[in-house]
From TrEMBL:
Domain of life: Eukaryota
Domain F-box span(s) in chain numbering: 32-79
Organism phylogeny: Eukaryota, Metazoa, Chordata, Craniata, Vertebrata
Gene that encodes the chain: FBXO48
Protein name: F-box protein 48
One GO location term (cellular component): cytoplasm
Amino acid sequence: MQKTSKKNKQEGTSCKERTILPSSKKKEESQEDFVELLPPEVTLKIFNELDVQSLCKAAMTCKSWNRTIENSDHLWKHHCLTVRAVCQREIDFDRGNGYSWKVTLLRNYWKSKVKHEWLSGKYSNIHSRCGLPEKSMYPMDADTWGEILEAELER
């Protein structure tokens, strides 16, 4: 007889449908989904406290959370503006071309991480390509590499 794990029993359900099975009781208790219970403004304030990775993970939790997060471009704005500190030209270009805050963030998030590492001098003492981690070679345009070169020359 094959034992089914609690995780497998919960897969494919919405937040509202998930159940908790306490070890002492086999009685099912339903969980309430705060997204459906709270006013939208409160829900958005809660989601607004999450970092980018947590927001993406929350969007994968269940359908109601995904719908709320995906339909609220404002949740992504704060994170996008943080990335803008490193990738101002790129963010402004994407926003000028009509991309949403979320799409703009997704297009520039990893680039901003790598660019920040280069600009902060993390790779200044590496003398050959072999010494660079693979992620340091994120595709960047000539203007970005020009910024990095200028920062290196100033060090």
